[in-house]
Amino acid sequence: MRFFRPLWFSRLLYPDALFRVKTKEKVLYLTFDDGPVAEITFPLLRILSDNMVKAVFFCNGEAAVANPQIMSAIKTSGHVIGNHGFSHPDGVLKNTKEYLEDINKASEVTSKKIFRPPFGRMKRSQYLMLKAIYKIIMWDIMPYDFDPEFGAVRSLAVVKKLMRPGSIIVLHDNNKSNMLELIEEFIIYSKKEGYRFDIIPELLSHKSPEPST
Ligand SMILES: [Zn+2]
Fold this sequence. Notes:
The protein is α/β, with parallel strands linked by helices. The chain has one domain: Glycoside hydrolase/deacetylase (TIM Barrel), CATH 3.20.20.370. The strands form 2 sheets. Strands 1, 2, 3, 6 and 7 form a 5-stranded parallel β-sheet that branches. The chain has a two-stranded parallel sheet with strand order 4-5. α7 packs parallel to α8. The N and C termini lie far apart (48 Å). Zinc ion binds next to loops.
């Protein structure tokens, strides 16, 4: 069973998390989880730059430590970095102390202000503690680009069908993802449909200034 929208009870469990930006404008918000990975993230940055699209990268702390040069490329390209945990912990399987330690460790190399829980889930107690520190960002559309069996063609069809004003879209810049096969086509299609792409308004203050040259 695949769930392209968040499960109905997520909004009840995490009422202060952001799932979709409230707007009537045709604007979409791209987010990329689980990177950075050189062979994926660098080509992605190129595509985003060619199409003048800014995004939020929810980086894995371990990968951030291993790839400082990609982290600075993300920042200097004017994107925003969020915290996605150090070792991609599943909150439901971890006690709150261990979970918070993992997120805290990742905050040193990712973000101290913006968080997306790995697997989109955490215990209510973890949520309550984290929401006091972080803006928690969930999603409106998850097209299963991380699932090789699903395939890029179907992922693209899902995101084209479900996109709506204010959609936050979660994709992945990790090794398993089909994202690079669909991202440019999706951006071009959306722009033809009258959409633009932006950074989630509440996170704009975390965007790095773009180089002046
Ligand atoms: Zn993840």
